[in-house]
Amino acid sequence: MRMTHGTSTFREQLEEAASLPLLDRTLSWSGVNSGTTNLAGIKTVAGMLADAFSALPGDVSLVDPSPVEAVRTDGTIDQVERGQHLVASIRPDAPTRILLTGHMDTVFPADHGFQKITELEPGILNGPGLADMKGGISVMLGALQLLEQSDVADRIGYDIMINSDEEVGSGSSAALIEQLAKGKTAALTYEPALPDGTLAGERGGSGNFSIIFIGKSAHAGRNPDEGRNALIAAADMALRLKAIHREGLSVNPAKIDGGGPNNAVPDHCILRVNFRPKSLEDQAEAQMRLDQLIPAIAKEHDLDVHCHGGFGRPPKPIDPQAQKLFGLVKQCGAELGLDINWRGTGGVCDGNNIAACGVPVVDTMGVRGGAIHSSDEFLIVDSLVERTQLSALTIMRIAERGGL
Fold first, then answer.
1. Which pLDDT score, from 0 to 100, does residue 7 have?
2. Prior bond to 3 cis, omega within 30?
3. Are 375 and 113 in contact, with CB atoms under 8 Å apart?
4. pTM attached to this predicted model
5. Residues in Cβ contact with 177 at an 8 Å cutoff, skipping those fewer than 6 apart
6. Which of 106, 168, 171, 404 is 20 to 30 A removed from 273 (C-alpha atoms)?
7. Cα 58 to the chain's mean position, in Å?
């Protein structure tokens, strides 16, 4: 680490990053499959994390998930089971308080072939969840361990939330995120940075909908006109929704569940569609157009149409407070000899939800890595210490200043 004069007050604490078990615990956590739907694996990792974060001077607990509904392929609406979320609170009465978030789930289910950790080359490891984001969780904990060794620790309090369902939209933890974000000066989320260290800046939003079409069955030869074809209505809706697609508002009709044998008019269908609005105005337009199309399709095809879902990830712009937080991270990077930059992305994460609460957030404070959500996912090992120091210094500066 090349530190400038400005870091001298925290030099001793920052140098301790190299002695923390950053890699060992990352490997340990990544060695347990914790795909979102692997509840046994999620439970095991949640216990491991609770043990690790108990090293901090506060209360650590595992919180039950909120109920989540899903539309099954037969059109029934059922509850989906999720794992518990880790929550910790340290110095809740401190004058300055921040939020740190991460997720313990990965996109790799228990039966996925990608389970092992291997070395691609010296300093680069391949494995499930190494970058996204068990390495990031290790960085978060490491930064807080360094903070607690500093003389500014008592000036700042923080809440920690590590959820079990980020990879599927945080449906069972969204209310928890909103609750914990209230009153916070800033937030840091530990999604991975790009391999060169670039951070994600503004993000578009995301909305997922399941649109259910209930028609009327009939014989395809004897009395087809007495039927009401749900498949045709779903296809019509898909085409009309795609016509809304434009710059700033991506619309992706992704899947149609339903249909039946060739000799029967299909009376049931579900259209799955994703919207990616760039701004809140784009999101409002998408919702308005969808609300208009549902009764129009129902009337024109003489069947019932029901919509399930919503915009679980609002767009995340870079407002003046967020710009200030990014500026602080960049300044801290410069003190550590790092050139920190950021750029907009179409991806979404819990940072979207935090920003929607009016709290400035930098949501890629995790390790440097890449190829996430694939069997080529990799972690750049040196970034564990590097990003731990960056987070620690950022938090210490917020504590020192009493804000941004």
1. 62
2. no
3. yes
4. 0.95
5. 101, 161, 163, 170, 350, 353, 354, 357
6. 106
7. 25
Element of type H or E holding 286: helix 280-301
**DSSP for 137-174, written as a single string:** HHHHHHHHHHHHTSTTGGGEEEEEEEES-GGGT-TTTH
Query: For the chain, first and last CA: distance in Å?
Result: 24
Work out whether strand 199-203 and strand 342-345 pair parallel, antiparallel, or are unpaired. parallel
Tens-place pLDDT, residues 221-256: 999 999 999 999 999 999 999 999 999 999 999 999
- With beta carbons less than 8 A apart as the criterion, state whether 255 and 199 touch: no
Q: In the predicted model, what is the mean pLDDT of the chain?
A: 97
Residue matched to tokens 């991270």: 329
Per residue in 115-173, pLDDT (tens digit) is: 999 999 999 999 999 999 999 999 999 999 999 999 999 999 999 999 999 999 999 99
| Calpha distance 164→80 (Å, rounded) | 13
Positive or negative, the Cα torsion across 274, 278, 279, 284? negative
Separation between Cα atoms, residue 358 and residue 69, nearest integer Å = 27
CB distance 361 to 201 below 8 Å: no
**Rounded to an integer, what distance in angstroms lies between the CA atom of residue 20 and that of residue 138?**
10
Kindly give, in sequence order, each residue whose CB lies less than 8 Å from that of residue 119, ignoring residues fewer than 6 positions away: 125, 126
Strands 77-80 and 68-71: antiparallel
CA atoms within 13 A on the CB side of 209: 26
Give the residues across from 213 on adjacent strands: 269, 305
Note the pLDDT tens digit of each residue in 21-75: 999 999 999 999 999 999 999 999 999 999 999 999 999 999 999 999 999 999 9
| DSSP element (H, E) containing 296 | helix 280-301
Q: What is the pLDDT of residues 77-94, one digit of tens each?
A: 999 999 999 999 999 999
C-alpha distance from residue 69 to each of 35, 66, 376 (Å): 19, 10, 32
User: Phi and psi at residue 57, in whole multiples of 5°?
Assistant: -85, 65
Question: In 3D, which of 117, 106, 123 has the Cα closest to residue 192?
Answer: 106
Let me know if 78 is exposed, middle or buried by CB neighbors in 10 A (0-12, 13-18, 19+). Answer: exposed
Three-point CA angle 390, 391, 394, nearest 5°: 85
CB 336 within 8 A of CB 263: no
